[in-house]
Specification:
Helices cover 4% and strands 36% of the residues. With 270 residues, the chain is mainly β. Strands 1, 4, 5, 7, 8, 9, 13, 15 and 16 form a nine-stranded mixed beta sheet that branches.
């Protein structure tokens, strides 16, 4: 069943090329640490994707369309829709990307001109936990929808005038195609733990300081109520991901074995 709704269109675009660590087929999704100004590397473990965040660091989610048509991304953090603040669902509001466009999502949307920064924080201080929804802390998700293709009727040729029977089929005038329909603006589509103890507490996303981030409403008609792609990226602290085996631990320095005969005679003690 097709759905028509209003979507938030992100206006800020990126000029940089797509990164190799991006996740997604229709839309690449990467996580960028704004404090260190570095893209977070993606680790694959047991078929899942992970990034390591640093508590207290601001971050943003970079989206880059790989399609030659518009795409709607319904984005969630910790199971919460980043536009509306509702418990995330595919049918909700999201961001619309133009063909091969890229944009940064820097925080929880507060208005058409402002967001509250995404900040890595202890799970107990995450926005989801503070609003009574701690069950899905530690995951970034995006449901990607492609637009419904508008099929225009083929124009019918006008009948040949009676006074000109010699006129050929190729020289006949063709009826002009009807103008493309204008879609009305509607009122919505802005869009197992291991048994061993892990170091520290899990990581979540806090509700940080506000900053300017301007967007506008646009209409978007989905081709289907089911996403064309669902992207999932889990995140936690580096220490906890190492403990879970997601990130290989640092190699300890090689320990030299004691030598039973390091010298020849007994020296005087100092």
């Amino acid at each position: 069943m097709n759905t028509l709704g209003k979507a938030v269109l992100a206006l800020a675009t990126l000029a940089a090329s797509a990164q190799a660590s991006a996740v997604g087929r229709l839309v690449d999704l990467t996580v960028y640490d704004r404090t260190t100004q570095q893209e977070l590397p993606v680790y694959r473990h047991d078929g899942r994707y992970y990034v390591a965040g640093q508590p207290g660091h601001r971050y943003q989610i970079q989206l880059r369309s790989q399609e030659d048509s518009r795409a709607l991304g319904v984005l969630s953090v910790d199971g919460v829709n980043v536009v509306s603040g509702d418990t995330a669902d595919w049918s909700q509001s999201g961001y619309v990307l133009q063909p091969y466009d890229a944009t940064d999502i820097q925080g929880w949307r507060k208005s058409l001109s402002e967001v509250a920064d995404f900040v890595f924080a202890d799970a107990s201080r995450s926005y989801a936990a503070r609003t009574g929804r701690p069950e899905n802390v530690g995951v970034i998700g995006m449901a990607v929808f492609l637009p419904r293709r508008m099929i225009r009727p083929m124009p019918m040729p006008m009948p040949a005038p009676m006074s000109a029977p010699q006129e050929s089929m190729t020289s006949r005038r063709m009826a002009a195609p009807p103008p493309a329909p204008t879609a009305p603006i509607a009122e919505s589509a802005i869009a197992p733990s291991p048994a061993k103890a892990l170091p520290g507490g899990p990581l979540g996303t806090g509700h940080g300081a506000r900053e300017t981030s301007e967007v506008t409403y646009t209409d978007f008609e989905r081709a289907s109520s089911t996403p064309n792609e669902v992207i999932t990226v889990y995140y936690d602290t580096r220490e906890r991901l190492i403990a879970q085996g997601v990130i290989p631990g640092d190699t300890p320095p090689e320990r030299t074995r004691p030598d039973p005969f390091p010298g020849h005679f007994v020296p005087d003690p100092r």
